[in-house]
Amino acid sequence: MSKGGNILGMRPPRPIPIKDRASILFLEKGRLDVIDGAFVLLDKNGVRTQIPIGGIACIMLEPGIRISHAAVALAARVGCLLVWVGEAGVRLYSAGQPGGARSDKLLYQARLALDDSLRLKVVRAMYAMRFGDEAPLRRSIEQLRGLEGARVKRMYQNFARQFGVKWTARRYTPGQFDSADLPNRCLSEATACLYGLSEAAILAAGYAPAIGFLHTGKPRSFVYDVADVFKFESVVPTAFRIAGKAQRGIQPFASDPVGETRRACRDSFRSTGLLKRIIPAIEEMLAAGGIEPPPPHDEAMPIAIPEDPSGDAGHRS
User: Fold this and answer.
1) CATH number 1.20.120.920 is the correct assignment for the domain at 103-287
2) Structurally, what CATH architecture does the domain formed by 12-96 represent?
3) Of 10, 64, 135, 222, which sits most exposed with the smallest number of CB within 10 A?
4) Is-contact 42 48, C-beta < 8 A?
C-alpha cells in the first residue's frame, strides 16, 4: 500500500550527490527502457543489462541506441544527463537537461557575464586555476585569450615531446573527424568525454551551459570554459600517451586508439575523483566576480529535486 507515492509512507531515497557518482557511461547498440522499475539496456536478443542510473552523472548515447520516454523521464528524475553523441563520442549532437535550472543561479551567472568588469574577474580566475599563476595585469579578455592560446600551443608541444608523438598542430574540422591525424583524433575524443562530464556538473549545479565568459556565443560556451580549466591535467596527457603508443605500434593501442582514449579518460575520471572537483571549481571561479547570488524569487518554480541541506552544491541534480 502506498501513501503519497511512497511505500507505507516511507521517505523516497535521496538523490546521490553529483560528487559521489560514477562519471560517464558510453552505451551503443541497444534499447534503453524502464522495466519493473529498473533502467535497463536490452540487446538484440532481449537480454537485459540493468544500469544504476541514479549513480551516474552522464550517459553518452552512441549510434544504435533507442530510448523510451519512460527511460528519459527516469534519467531526468534522478539527475543523470543524457548526451546524444556520434560514434565513439567524437561528435556531440544534443543533451537532455536533468531537471530545471536554478533561477537564482542563472541570474547570478548572467549578471557576471553581462558586466564587463565582473566578467574579466571571472576570466582571470579561470586563467589562474588553469595555469597555476595569476593572469597579467591590465589585460583585456581578448588579450588574455591570445596569451592563453600561446601557452596552450606550447603545452601541446611539450606533451608531444614527453610522449614521443609526431605532432604538427591542433587541427579539427567539425563533421570531418576521420580526416584528422591520429593525435588530433585522440584529443577530440578525450575532450568530448570531458565536455560531457563538465556539462553534467554545470547542469547539476543549476547553471546554464550557454552563458560563458572566455568562450561566448555557443550553446556550450560555459562547458568549454569549465573543461579548459581541467583539460591539461586530465584528458590531454591521456590522449598524447595513447597516441604515442599507437604511433609506435604498441598493442592494443594501435588497433583502436580512439576507443582506448575513451576508456582511459573514463578510468582517469574515476581514479582522480575529477567529478568531485568540478562543481566547487565552478563556484570558485564565479565567486571571483565578488558579488552575491540573488535569492530565489518567491514565485519561482520549485527545482526538480529539492536540495537537501546536508548535500553539496550538486545535490540538486
Assistant:
1) yes
2) Ribosomal Protein L15; Chain: K; domain 2 (3.100)
3) 10
4) yes
Per-residue pLDDT of the chain (317 residues; tens, 9 = 90+): 344 444 444 455 567 877 788 878 889 889 999 998 899 999 989 899 999 998 898 898 988 999 999 999 898 888 888 988 776 555 667 777 655 567 788 899 999 999 999 999 999 999 999 999 999 988 999 999 999 999 999 999 999 999 999 999 998 777 677 778 999 999 998 998 899 888 888 887 888 999 999 999 998 999 999 999 999 999 999 999 999 999 999 988 889 999 899 889 988 888 888 878 898 999 999 999 999 887 766 665 444 444 444 444 443 33
Quote the crossing angle between the two packed helices 182-204 and 235-247, to the nearest 10°.
Answer: 160
* Category of 122 on φ-ψ map: left (φ > 0), alpha (ψ -120 to 50) or beta: alpha
Q: Nine-digit cell at 87? A: 560514434
Helix pair 141-163, 235-247: axis angle to 10 deg: 40
Peptide bond into 252 cis (omega under 30): yes
Query: Which pTM does this prediction carry?
Result: 0.75
Grid coordinates representing 3 are 501513501
Q: What are phi and psi of 76, to 5 degrees?
A: -65, -40
Contacts of 306 (CB under 8 A, 6+ apart): none
Distance (Å, rounded) from C-alpha 31 to C-alpha 51? 12
Considering all CA atoms of the chain, what is the largest pairwise distance in Å, rounded to the nearest integer? Answer: 67
Domain with CATH 1.20.120.920 in the chain: 103-287
Is 94 within 8 Å of 295 (Cβ atoms)? no
Write out the residue limits of the CATH 3.100.10.20 domain(s) in the chain.
12-96
Strand stretches in the chain, DSSP E? 2-3, 6-7, 22-27, 30-35, 38-42, 48-50, 56-61, 65-67, 81-85, 92-96
